């Protein structure tokens, strides 16, 4: 089977061919052509167009084409669903959806900048998504600092910080302003880039300094923690269903909400709410 899309791929148009070859059509041929030739070439070559407007395999609402492939072909592999969230966040600039989104975007953009041949770029991208899939399937709970040597280095580092003169310094003014912004817009699709504009500071500086003033958490981790805390508050009233709570706390869907909630509390939202009602 032939599959055709726009040339110069970065995220969706690399991730979808990886999904096609690994889960849908292993012998499928991926064709890249200029945008204005996609539909004509699709008819000429009897190829299935994807990731262009007006075709079946494309974006729907907040979801990207990768999401549609997963749903259309009934792919239930949990690791693929983890990748779907990462691909969606990277492809739509919603890097708060998963910690890996910004990294996938950065590597993909770098590959596209360095490699001009689309088929060579696809080959490199498939290697990248194979690695990401292996991580999602086997290594999500493994951290680099689980090794004894890294723990030793971290302990020395934190000990030095505690002893160093001036280590405890007054947070800059933007920290409190940022906390208020996050609290006021916790149910929105917040991005560090947009927040940095409001604060009038560099996004790279904000990204680098964020964890220092926000509980040693990355931006994505902190946002998820705040959303779960808000969800717990909403659970204490019977006014909202869990689906409504997921929406009110900024999660893209209830399954994403359930997964993140369980990561933070060790329980599914329904079990947690039942315990709250017993108290």
Automatic annotation (TrEMBL):
<dbReference type="GO" id="GO:0003700">
    <property type="term" value="F:DNA-binding transcription factor activity"/>
</dbReference>
<dbReference type="Pfam" id="PF12833">
    <property type="entry name" value="HTH_18"/>
</dbReference>
<dbReference type="InterPro" id="IPR018634">
    <property type="entry name" value="ChrB_C"/>
</dbReference>
<dbReference type="InterPro" id="IPR009057">
    <property type="entry name" value="Homeodomain-like_sf"/>
</dbReference>
<protein>
    <recommendedName>
        <fullName>HTH araC/xylS-type domain-containing protein</fullName>
    </recommendedName>
</protein>
<feature type="domain" description="HTH araC/xylS-type">
    <location>
        <begin position="176"/>
        <end position="275"/>
    </location>
</feature>
<dbReference type="InterPro" id="IPR020449">
    <property type="entry name" value="Tscrpt_reg_AraC-type_HTH"/>
</dbReference>
<keyword id="KW-0805">Transcription regulation</keyword>
<dbReference type="Pfam" id="PF09828">
    <property type="entry name" value="ChrB_C"/>
</dbReference>
<dbReference type="InterPro" id="IPR018060">
    <property type="entry name" value="HTH_AraC"/>
</dbReference>
<keyword id="KW-0804">Transcription</keyword>
<keyword id="KW-0238">DNA-binding</keyword>
<dbReference type="GO" id="GO:0043565">
    <property type="term" value="F:sequence-specific DNA binding"/>
</dbReference>
<dbReference type="InterPro" id="IPR018062">
    <property type="entry name" value="HTH_AraC-typ_CS"/>
</dbReference>
């Amino acid at each position: 089977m032939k599959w055709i899309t726009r040339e110069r791929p970065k995220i969706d148009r690399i991730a979808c061919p990886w999904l096609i070859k690994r889960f849908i059509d292993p012998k499928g041929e991926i064709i890249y052509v200029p945008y204005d030739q996609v539909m004509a070439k699709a008819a000429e070559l009897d190829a299935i167009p994807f990731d262009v407007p007006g075709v079946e395999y494309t974006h729907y609402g907040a979801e990207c084409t990768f999401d549609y492939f997963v749903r259309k072909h009934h792919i239930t592999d949990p690791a693929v669903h983890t990748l779907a969230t990462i691909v969606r966040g990277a492809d739509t600039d919603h890097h708060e959806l998963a910690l890996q989104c910004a990294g996938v975007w950065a590597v993909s953009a770098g590959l596209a900048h360095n490699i001009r041949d689309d088929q060579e770029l696809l080959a490199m991208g498939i290697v990248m998504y194979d690695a990401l899939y292996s991580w999602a399937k086997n290594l999500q709970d493994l951290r680099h600092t689980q090794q004894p040597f890294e723990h030793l280095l971290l302990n020395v580092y934190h000990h030095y910080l505690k002893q160093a003169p001036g280590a405890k310094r007054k947070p800059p003014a933007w920290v409190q302003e940022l906390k208020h912004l996050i609290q006021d817009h916790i149910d929105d699709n917040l991005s560090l880039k947009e927040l940095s504009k409001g604060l009038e500071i560099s996004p790279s500086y904000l990204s680098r300094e964020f964890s220092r003033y926000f509980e040693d958490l990355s931006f994505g981790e902190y946002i998820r923690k705040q959303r779960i805390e808000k969800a717990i508050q909403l659970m204490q009233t019977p006014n909202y269903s869990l689906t409504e709570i997921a929406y009110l706390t900024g999660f893209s869907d209830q399954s994403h909400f359930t997964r993140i909630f369980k990561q933070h509390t060790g329980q599914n939202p329904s079990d947690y709410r039942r315990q709250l009602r017993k108290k």
